[in-house]
Amino acid sequence: MSILSRHETLPGFDGAAGWLNSEPLTPDGLRGKVVLVDFWTYTCINWLRTLGYVRAWAEKYKDQGLVVIGVHTPEFPFERDIDNVRWAAEEMRVEYPIALDPDYAVWRAFSNHYWPAVYIADAEGRIQYHHFGEGAYDESERVIQRLLGIEDGLVSVASAQWGNHLETWPADHLHVINKRLVLEFKNPTGNMTPRYMKVLDKLVEDGLCESSTI
Length: 214
Prior knowledge:
Helices cover 35% and strands 14% of the residues. It is α/β, with parallel strands linked by helices. The protein has two domains: 18-148, Glutaredoxin (3-Layer(aba) Sandwich), CATH 3.40.30.10; 166-213, no CATH class. A six-stranded mixed beta sheet has the order 1-4-3-2-5-6, with helices on one face. Helix 6 packs antiparallel against helix 7. It starts with 17 loop residues before the first strand and ends in a 9-residue tail after the last helix. 32% of the residues are buried.
């Protein structure tokens, strides 16, 4: 199944198993709004790095016609538990509407393949832009502004601000995050690369993991 292309109609969220922070939302009910759909799962390091931007956009443009919807599609079994997702959303201050997608129904409706993935639809419900992975923050925000018909400065996100304190995170969640870091940033010989160490230092500073667990 191919990835959704520009100008395709925003798929519905009928396959969502439930919603957090909102009543169920539909494409018809969203007409007249610019809609940003963000596919995420809460232990994904790549998504964690994008959260500050998505959260800032949701806050800055909510009164100007933007609706941000996070679609939580789990990768690991414990991420399917609604209580875990609710906890993660509160811990990470994900306050915009969240569609729970434990069975990948919304994921398939969008023909999505990635965490994170952003799709932006115009007020008529046509998808005008998508981006997969990290980066392209300025470009994404300019698309939001263009579709809203405004010109303004771009948000400034100093740091990820992922959570509060290490002791609030369950051990199995931390293990998954740490394992992702090992796979992503260690070189083929198993040694820690400078980039790995830089990211690890940042996570320790933010209280998201401790070096002794790596």
